[in-house]
């Protein structure tokens, strides 16, 4: 039998604020974290907008030496994990540390650091490459640093499944705790690739919005005038804990993690199939794993990237899974306000889904002025609303055709 798993701590670093409270308040107010890029000169770039984290202070979480030897994506991940662990009140001890793990997701590791040291190599030669370059750049450093920081000696994993990575991390953590192998897992995603190569590469794919004259209105999921996603950065981490252990210590519980689904499109390196079949299978799997019926789901935190392909195909996938119930669902894309954090997005959106169930509040999809004809569901346009929610799913779909979905339910006590 599967053990019950609950969310007992959450941590966020986003373009709308460092810390859960700040981000949540701004999302509820429908604010956008998207603005003109400040990290580098965009004069020669077709895309000049992104969602940068602007209030993060490394000294709040690290000493100067530690911060100097960690790239931003690792700093964000550690900070979100530290906040989540503090929020949970979970104490890691010598007795339980081998049953506490860390599973993180990211899409690309430290692309800015690779850029930097390639330039150093080209200008000054190999002897000027820092010995910290590799430890700063590789994708598993957030999970490694978190494990060392908190003393977790259980599983230490990093998943790099593109934009599904954060959700895969949360799902695999759920499996580890529900199987009884682990007592608790710190899980989520982190990313920071707002840099010339990152923006230039996604621009070359024609994946990014070019609405440079109106950044706040550039991410427009499900709108007829959507023209691409907006690059973002940040981190979202959760503490997934064995239910009985959480109850025994009197933990505050945000939501119950109930199911996990994953699949492959086996179709195309960057495009989903028109019917969204792979994503639909992942949704069905998560719902069945949770022991739910489709009609039990009241809310979907959609992948909702604001690209012409995703939003159309995801809508079709939702309809294929839910049938007529699809029109009774509340759906929202928080990427309309936060942008697309790539591998971090699933961690952030899992946090937001748990908070939505806890607070019984559906976050809005802003900039939805005129839905595309093929996007005709309730995407909670522009204004959030209080609503009774029993269960929810969070979708993440990535390049390479990789799909991940987690299912949660409202925790109402015993």
Automatic annotation (TrEMBL):
EC number: 2.3.1.179
Molecular functions per Gene Ontology: 3-oxoacyl-[acyl-carrier-protein] synthase activity
GO CC term (a single one): cytosol
Domain Ketosynthase family 3 (KS3) as annotated: residue spans: 2-410
Keyword Transmembrane: no
Task performed by this protein: Involved in the type II fatty acid elongation cycle. Catalyzes the elongation of a wide range of acyl-ACP by the addition of two carbons from malonyl-ACP to an acyl acceptor. Can efficiently catalyze the conversion of palmitoleoyl-ACP (cis-hexadec-9-enoyl-ACP) to cis-vaccenoyl-ACP (cis-octadec-11-enoyl-ACP), an essential step in the thermal regulation of fatty acid composition.
UniProt pathway: Lipid metabolism; fatty acid biosynthesis
Membership in a protein family: Belongs to the thiolase-like superfamily. Beta-ketoacyl-ACP synthases family.
Catalytic residues (UniProt): 163 (for beta-ketoacyl synthase activity)
PANTHER family per record: 3-OXOACYL-[ACYL-CARRIER-PROTEIN] SYNTHASE, MITOCHONDRIAL, POLYKETIDE SYNTHASE-RELATED
Protein name (database record): 3-oxoacyl-[acyl-carrier-protein] synthase 2
Keywords: Acyltransferase, Fatty acid biosynthesis, Fatty acid metabolism, Lipid biosynthesis, Lipid metabolism, Transferase
InterPro entries xref list: 3-oxoacyl-ACP_synth-2, Beta-ketoacyl_synthase, Ketoacyl_synth_AS, Ketoacyl_synth_C, Ketoacyl_synth_N, PKS_Beta-ketoAc_synthase_dom, Thiolase-like
Database matches in NCBIfam families: fabF, PRK07314.1
Signal peptide range in chain numbering: none
């Amino acid at each position: 039998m599967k053990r019950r798993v609950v969310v007992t701590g959450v941590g966020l670093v986003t373009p709308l604020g460092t810390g859960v409270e700040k981000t949540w308040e701004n999302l509820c107010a429908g604010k956008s974290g998207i603005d003109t890029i400040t990290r580098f000169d965009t004069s020669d770039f077709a895309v000049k907008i992104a969602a940068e984290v602007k209030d993060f202070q490394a000294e709040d979480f690290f000493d100067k030496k530690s911060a100097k030897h960690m790239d931003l994506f690792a700093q964000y991940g550690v900070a979100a994990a530290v906040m989540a662990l503090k929020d949970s009140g979970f104490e890691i001890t010598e007795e339980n540390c081998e049953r506490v793990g860390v599973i993180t997701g990211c899409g690309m590791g430290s692309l800015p650091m690779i850029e930097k040291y390639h330039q150093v190599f080209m200008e000054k030669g190999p002897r000027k490459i820092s010995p910290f370059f590799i430890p700063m750049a590789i994708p598993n450093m957030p999970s490694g640093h978190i494990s060392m920081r908190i003393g977790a000696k259980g599983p230490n994993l990093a998943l790099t499944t593109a934009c599904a990575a954060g959700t895969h991390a949360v799902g695999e953590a759920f499996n580890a705790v529900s199987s009884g192998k682990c007592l608790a897992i710190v899980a989520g995603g982190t990313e920071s690739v707002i840099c010339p190569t990152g923006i230039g590469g996604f621009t070359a794919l024609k994946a990014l919005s070019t609405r440079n004259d109106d950044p706040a209105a550039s991410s427009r999921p499900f709108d007829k005038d959507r023209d691409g996603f907006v690059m973002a950065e940040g981190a979202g981490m959760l503490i997934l804990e064995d239910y009985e252990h959480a109850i025994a210590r009197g933990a505050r519980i945000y939501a119950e993690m109930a199911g996990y689904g994953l699949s492959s499109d086996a179709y195309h390196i960057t495009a989903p199939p028109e019917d969204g079949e792979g994503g639909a299978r992942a949704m069905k799997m998560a719902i069945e794993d949770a022991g739910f019926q489709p009609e039990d789901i009241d809310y979907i935190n959609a992948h909702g990237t604001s690209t012409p392909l995703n939003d159309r195909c995801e809508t079709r996938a939702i309809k294929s899974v839910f049938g007529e119930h699809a029109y009774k669902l509340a759906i929202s894309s928080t990427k309309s306000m936060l942008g697309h954090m790539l591998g971090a997005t699933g961690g952030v959106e899992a946090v937001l889904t748990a908070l939505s169930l806890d607070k019984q509040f559906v976050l809005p999809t802003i900039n939805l002025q005129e839905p595309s004809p093929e996007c005709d569901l309730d995407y909670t346009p522009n204004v959030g609303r209080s609503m009774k929610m029993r269960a929810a799913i969070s979708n993440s779909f990535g390049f390479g055709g990789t799909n991940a979905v987690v299912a949660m339910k409202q925790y109402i006590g015993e």
